[in-house]
Amino acid sequence: MPEVGAIITVTKIREVYQLAGSDLAPLSYTEKPNLYGGPYQMTLYYLADVKALAARIPGAPAATASGSSRFAAPTGDRIVRTQAMKTYNLKDVQMDRLKPVIEEPNPRGGTRPVRFYNVCDMMTLATAQQALG
């Protein structure tokens, strides 16, 4: 029997909980006609399931304290964001959950700074993602 309760759209899940479509794979969902007349069905998840999932994922808004520093405390070795994504098979939305240790100007003149992260944070996030599915 499906759970009864509040529902939330995928768009709202991405905005509020910063969860990607791949994060949502283990959750049950329902589809309804698009209220805006679009050609695709609306995919709706149960809010309680989404909150529970976000609490289990390191760095997701539900699992972090609000009002804390914009940088993480340095712990051990560091890794550049792009290298971490390649090494640990992570996506942008997953990386956005973690705070960098430091940001430096891009040496190649790009508009985005180079972000360095704790290797131990990357390993924890990658392990959690694998455990979820």
Describe this structure in words.
InterPro entries: DNA-bd_dom_put_sf (IPR009061). The protein has 133 residues and is α+β, with helices and mostly antiparallel strands. It has two domains: 7-63, no CATH class; 78-132, no CATH class. The protein is 33% helix and 17% strand. It is built from five helices and six strands. Strands 1-3-2 form a three-stranded antiparallel sheet. The model has no long low-confidence stretch (mean pLDDT 81).
Low-confidence spans: pLDDT under 50, at least 5 residues?
none
In total, the number of strands is 6
Largest sheet: 3 strands, antiparallel
Number of helices: 5
Question: If you average the pLDDT, what whole number results?
Answer: 81
What series of H and E elements makes up the topology?
Answer: EHEEHEHHEEH
Strand content: 15-25%
Terminal Cα span = 23 Å
Rg, nearest Å: 17 Å
Q: Which helices and strands, and how do they pair?
A:
Elements: E1 7-9, H1 10-17, E2 29-32, E3 42-46, H2 47-56, E4 78-80, H3 81-88, H4 92-95, E5 102-104, E6 114-118, H5 119-132
Question: Which descriptors would you attach to this protein?
Answer:
133 residues; 17% strand; 3-stranded antiparallel sheet; 6 strands; elongated; alpha+beta; 2 domains
